[in-house]
Structures are given as structure tokens and as C-alpha cells.
Amino acid sequence: MVTQYAVGVDLGGTNIVVAAMTLDGSKLFGLQSAPTLAAEGADAVIARLARMVNETIDATMQETGASRDAFIGVGVGAPGTVDRATGRVLKAPNLDWHNRELAHPMSQLTGLPVQIDNDANCATYGEWWLGAARGGVNVIGVTIGTGVGGGIIVDRKVYHGSSDAAGEIGHTTIDLNGRRCGCGNYGCLEAYASGSAIAGRAREALTNDESSMLRTMVDGDLTRITAAVVYEAAGQGDAVALEIVRDTARVLGAGLANLLNIFNPDVVVIAGGVTQAGDALFEPLRKEVRRRAFKSVSERCHIVPGTLPGTAGVVGAVAAFIAQSTGHPPA
User: How far apart are CA 57 and CA 29, in angstroms?
Assistant: First the structure.
């Protein structure tokens, strides 16, 4: 039997990652990344996506000896809200795209069928297929970066909702009168637990603390504080950073406890830069979930960090292409 391949694309606001995979997920080829350069406009970004797909196919053909006919299609994980049926990105603020065709022009440029899905759905699907949530039946995925995204898998299938908008975990409300979120609402999980929110809370804390090593780590320039800097300081025992990480864990724990009580998952996988915080985050996070969720629910659920850093999105995009093309999740 001839080995077949699909290409996965993780389209982010900052970077694009592309790779080809065998349909059983056993091998990955031609992995590459490049800046998105969204300011150049949608046409330029789509042309770059297609070029990278074609380059990845060429590299895979050279490495494996496969023919072009062995490549059956392309899956794309795109940020924001999408319409899978029409292949459009309805709204992607990080790209400044509104009701933009993606699947059709990419198909024209690559000569292959193209399926799209939300990028956080794809990251969750990737961790379910080949990563930390492998073997799970009902899975919640949380991606924490500039924002907070999410994906929901029910009975081994991604749950998309009535308008492909399910899984917006970052915009669940955890404080009715809380911080203003970038979406315009108040008290969203993203306003507390995203990378940018963690950095912002650190800057606020330092207005009343002159002793934290966070100051020296950025040479006194508080605008240089990022979530990664906070995690690093927490790992070195800095009191301010540790308290911010603990607060983040408590907020995430409250948000996850709500989801556990609703969906009763067997796995929650958390991906993104926040996993750098390690046990300083995950131990109080699990404790908060146990405190708030039903005992029978929390005892059944494993909360784990993702194990596919850098590739969960492309792996999940391939999985999404397989699922949408065949009507069945990948084996």
C-alpha cells in the first residue's frame, strides 16, 4: 500500500508552522516555521502559507521518495472564529482578518483540498492524538499565550458548537466586576491568566515592591517584563513572582473546575508558555480544582502539561483534516 501524507499548518499572529505527516501520525516531515508578517495583508500571508506548504511537500518527497499524488490535502489551524463549511476566517483580530476566504485560495495555490479549523481546537486535537491527552475520551484543552484559547473533545471528536465557536474558554467570566478583557467584557479568564495579563499583574505588583529580582532581571525597565520572566523568577524563589504564579493557578483552577463540572473530562491538557512555571503552577492549580469541582469529577480527571511544544498545532491540523475529510477521528 502506498503511504499517504497530509500537510498541517498552524497559522498564528506571529509565526506560521508547517509540516507533513503520515496519516497514522507516526512520522513528521519537512517541519519549518516563518514569521506571519500579518501587516503585509491577507493575500501576502495566504501566498506565504501556500509557498510553505509546497516547500514542505517538496522536502518530504525528496526525503521519502513519495510522489505528489501521495499528498491528499492540507489542514489549517487559524486564529479567531472560523466557518469550516465555507473555509473562511470570520474574525481574527491578531491578523486583522474579517470574513476572509482561506481554504479556497490555498487550494488553488497548492492544488490540494484544504480544510480549516480554529487553532486552539487543533492544538487540543494534536495533544489528544499524539500528545499528553492521548487515549482520552473527553478532553479539555487550554492554550495559554498572548491570550487564552481552548478546545473541547467529546467522545473523541472536537466539539464545535452550533456556529463553530465552541471552546472560547478564555472568555468565560470568573469575576463579574473584574478586569477589562481585550474582548470588551469584564472578568474574563484571559484577563487574568494570559501571558500578557501575567506580565501586567507583575508590573502592578512592582509599584509597591523594590526588592523583587524581577526589577534586576529587566534592568529596571518594567516594560520588558514578560510571562516568561515571571516564570523564571518564580523558579528562583522570588516572592512576588511566586505569588503571581499562585494567583494565576487559583484563577485557572476556578475556571477549570467550572468546566470539569460541566463536561466531566478524563483529561485537561494545558499548553503554551505557562507550562514553564512547572510545579509552581500545576500543584496549586490541581489543589484549587479539587477544592471547587465535585469529588467524583476531579478524581477522574488528570490535569497535565502539553507534550508537543511547537508542533501541537500542525499535528492537530492534520488530525482535523482527516476528521473533516473522512467523518471519523484519526486512528
Answer: 9
Q: What are phi and psi of 278, to 5 degrees?
A: 60, -140
Residue 210 CB: number of other CB atoms within 10 A?
7
User: Is it the case that residue 210 has pLDDT exceeding 90?
Assistant: no
Residue holding cell 516572592? 239
Residue 189 backbone phi and psi in degrees, to 5: -55, -40
Whether pTM exceeds 0.90: yes
> Per-residue pLDDT for 215 more than 90?
yes
Residue span of the structural domain in which 89 resides: 5-126+311-326
Residue 225 lies in a domain: yes
The helix (H) or strand (E) run that includes residue 53 is helix 42-64
Confidence of residue 272 (pLDDT cuts 50, 70, 90): confident
Rg (C-alpha) for the chain, rounded Å, is 20
Indicate whether 179 belongs to any domain: yes
- Contacts of the segment 33-42: beta carbons below 8 A, 24+ positions apart: 36/11, 36/12, 36/95, 38/13, 38/94, 38/95, 38/96, 42/95, 42/97, 42/100
Q: What is the per-residue DSSP string for 77-119?
A: EESSEEETTTTEEEEETTTTEEEEE-HHHHHHHHSS-EEEEEH
Q: What share of the chain is helix, strand, coil (3-state, %, to 5)?
A: 45, 25, 30
pLDDT of residue 311: 95
Cell of 300: 477522574
Do 287 and 318 lie in one domain? The reply is no
Confidence band for 88, pLDDT divided at 50, 70 and 90? very high
Q: 3-state class of 135 per DSSP? A: coil
Q: How many domains does the chain have?
A: 2
Q: Specify the CATH number for the domain of residue 168.
A: 3.30.420.40
Model confidence pLDDT, tens digit, residues 123-161:
999 999 999 999 999 999 999 988 899 999 999 999 999
CA distance 315 to 19: 8
